Amino acid sequence: MQHAVLRCGASTTKRYCGPEIFHFGKTMSLNLAIVGTGIFATDKHLPTIANIKELTPSACYNRTKSKAETFAEKAGIKQENVFNSLEEVFESKSVDAVDALLPVQYNLDAVKLAVQHNKPICLEKPIAANLQQAREIVKLSSGSSTPIAILEQWSFLTVIKTLKEEILPKIGDIASFTYHSTGAWNDNNKYLATGWRQNPEHIGGFLSDGGVHQLALLTDVLGEVDTVSGFTKQLRKESGADDILYSTFKMKSGVIGNFTYGSAFGAADKTLRFTIMGTKGSVIYDFSPSLPKPTLSYQVGESSQRTTEKEVIEVDEIDNMKAEFVNFAEAVLSKEKSKIVVPPAKAFHHLAVIAAALESSSKNGTAVKVEEP
């Protein structure tokens, strides 16, 4: 790790540079089929995949074929490789792996086909529409050698390693945390017009769609959640379901904390802040969009009288979407599904936390144990 250190008065500012993304010694390329060719596939997945030499967009499918044909033109995919059904995609001998961006209620169908035809697959989050489907995906994954990855890109944030390896050991036994991610409603959110988001079949709607990212960061740093006591509420009819969550978590480690999430409020600053308190210090990770760069600020000491000066690290994050696709390619090419950073069992836990929060809210805040796969 490299740090550029700047002295700023009584505090110390460091710039943290994330690690290089893994590259293979010998270039091999996988023929990748993209299924679900909507806005996110066009605006995010396609440009990312185009910059990864180990992946070549070679086929596509959409329930509305004209959309798939338009996508194929942008991706340089031959029109004969625009398939007519999901089954055709997985049956094709020219397809090495599949990138699925489907309404999540169809993820289980895609995984069944992937396992049946031994086609590695990565799926957009959340893992499934409900815990029953998610549990089936976990079972299918555990019984197969086929690599299955859930695209929860926040698990690739370099700040996770920095916190766990560099800072948390300095602040003693971890006692508690506060995770706060709130913001104003965005009328210009282009995904609002997506039917499966307006009328979600997946539990929690926007709470699970975005909340699993937040939970990936939280649990990668502090471990899994044991129980949840919380309240949810719907502020916007466009959300289709409850869209804010205020809750208290007890982690399996015994750490306790507050988890607040929602971007359905009126005019408000977008605030993303993760505070961790220990017996010998504390750390705050502030990644609010208003900041020039995300920052880690921490103090070490057992009391206010015995404390070091505050240190501030500016975090230069990597392209974590690119990192998750590189990880998927690495696992597929090496034929080692254990290399997948977010396998189904891990993604199940994140969705199960949202399910527990919703159940707790329906029971007036009673603590609910997070289900296991």
TrEMBL record:
GO terms for biological process: NADPH regeneration. One of its GO terms (cellular component) is cytoplasm. GO terms for molecular function: nucleotide binding; oxidoreductase activity, acting on NAD(P)H. InterPro entries: Gfo/Idh/MocA-like_OxRdtase_C, Gfo/Idh/MocA-like_OxRdtase_N, NAD(P)-bd_dom_sf. Residues 31-140 form the Gfo/Idh/MocA-like oxidoreductase N-terminal domain. This is Gfo/Idh/MocA-like oxidoreductase N-terminal domain-containing protein. It holds the Pfam family GFO_IDH_MocA_C. Residues 170-368 form the Gfo/Idh/MocA-like oxidoreductase C-terminal domain.
